[in-house]
Design a protein that fits this description.
The protein is mainly α. It has one domain. It has helices at 5-29, 35-59, 69-73, 82-94. The two termini are 28 Å apart.
Length: 95
């Protein structure tokens, strides 16, 4: 399969959000909505976004704040040139 399950989930959420926004615009256009109802929906949307943000940080985002593998293994970072990269590329192509 050329894509992950997460891609399907993200796509479904994106389509659902577009559908909900379309429904909201339709309701506003038909003037069936009130300002207090709009405020309540906006408040719910903010809460959902914050919950998603917190869950993302709890499950995946914490990894972005940690030090890299070079730090953990005590490997020093060395400067390299374009010629060094070409040499490594030639070695890899030969294999």
């Amino acid at each position: 399969m050329p894509f992950s399950f997460g891609d399907i989930v993200y796509g479904a959420i994106f389509l659902w959000l577009i559908w909900k926004m379309g429904k909201g615009i339709k309701i506003l256009y038909q003037k069936k909505a009130t300002w207090s109802g709009l405020g309540n929906r906006l408040w719910k949307a903010v809460n959902v976004i914050l919950a998603i943000y917190i869950l993302f940080n709890a499950f995946w985002g914490i990894n972005y704040k940690r030090k890299g593998i070079a730090h953990q293994l005590g490997i020093s970072k060395e400067k390299y040139t374009a010629n060094d990269i070409k040499q490594i590329n030639e070695i890899l192509v030969k294999k």
